[in-house]
Amino acid sequence: MKFTKTRIFAFITLISLLWPGLSLAASAGGAPLNLNMTSSFAGLLALTVFIIAYLFVMSEEFTHLRKSKPVIVAAGIIWIIVSILAATVGSSAAAEAAIRHNLLEYAELFLFLLVAMTYVNAMEERNVFEALRAWLTQKGFTYRQLFWITGILAFFISPIADNLTTALVMCAVVMAVGSSNKKFVALGCINIVVAANAGGAFSPFGDITTLMVWQKGILDFTEFFAIFLPSVINYLIPAAIMTLAVPKVHPKAHDEKVHMKVGARRTMVLFLLTIVTAVSFHNFLHLPPAAGMMLGLGYLQFFGYYLKMLEKRRRKQIGDAADNYVFDIFKKVQRAEWDTLLFFYGIILCVGGLSTIGYLSILSEAMYGQWGQALGLSAIHNATPANIFVGVLSAIVDNIPVMFAVLTMQPEMSHGQWLLVTLTAGVGGSMLSIGSAAGVALMGQAKGAYTFFSHLKWTWAIALGYIASIICHLYLNADLFSKPIS
Q1: In this structure, what DSSP letter does residue 336 have?
Q2: Domain count of the fold of the chain
Q3: Residue 72 and residue 24: Cα distance in Å, rounded?
Q4: Which among 42, 61, 50, 41 is positioned nearest to 21, based on CA atoms?
Q5: pLDDT tens digit string along 121-142?
Q6: For residue range 316-363, what is the model confidence (pLDDT) as tens digits?
Q7: Structural domain boundaries, residue 300
């Protein structure tokens, strides 16, 4: 992920609040291992190592160093420090159990995302997304119509295909029809980022943060839909404001036609069947969703074998003896975003080590124990300020490690509060272009038209949508705030 100097400065400003608590560690007995050595030289050294590593991550745009590399190295160093500290107090076995728990958490996330990425790559290879782009560009819509069409499609596709992939596809449409109008491209990209993030917030499959909450078993699959209307409001308010600045003129029509390859529709059906399988594993069999996703990968492997045999017969009919057939499932696995997957490993292990040292309890007590009391809030809304802050922080740092922090702290919150933090972490990143993977990717795809400052110009409108979505959730789902997690 690429970052700017603004984000680096903001990160340094907030580091003392955020990073101490990011972890997923657990002791041999099941409770988190807390060495309570946050003020020791070794503890501070571990925190410093992580800060330096994440600064390298944030400066990827300038160094061109893949973000996974520094955090993987930092993870190894931090756990060496944890191991030494644990040995001094006779807790080596508990430290081993903690890192094993971290590895298990990562394995589930890794397998789930690997299957999802493989399906997306397969649909891309079958021209599913290209066909959608070509269809939209040849319909002769006005700029304002395309603004709404791409935004609405982004909102409803992202819950299934994830917000990053959705944003890239819709941006390709905006670029294809409006490349000569930079103002439209900028507004269209902002609209897509907001829509994709909002659409991903109410679905366990739409964003990494919602996926983590669901896989943790904190909320059931259907409970996420309680924030559908707040997500809609989060998108509609800034979109309605920005549409007034979009020209009504017609762009130049395109005659490009793209046909989906054989098996494209069946691949989409298999992906939906895989999602159903993952949900069924979690809800009915009480098994990890990742196991259901891996079964879904098996569906695609067998269908890939069928496509390969079909292509083989066709090549024989035309006398083509080439042995490299079009569809190869392992090529789709190979094209997964490995830098991102390895980055998650580094983050989980790094923050797990920092939590084991003892920083987590400090942050948890401050955010979820003191802020609400200081504001004089009732018990059911004690966590509300912290959860709203999570969304603001997600726009500056990144929603994935922020959500890791909350999940690791596991504060005693109601269903309503867990839905609130899921909503804010998912849509808060829309307030800045650097606040989400979708925004960062589109800055590269629409370079020169969609920039940090073009997005910043409309941050106030996006913030209005952010505030309105929170108010809507507090009012619409008020009964859920008195429902404790069982």
Answers
A1: S
A2: 1
A3: 16
A4: 50
A5: 888 888 887 887 778 777 778 8
A6: 777 665 555 567 777 778 777 787 788 878 888 888 888 888 876 677
A7: 5-482
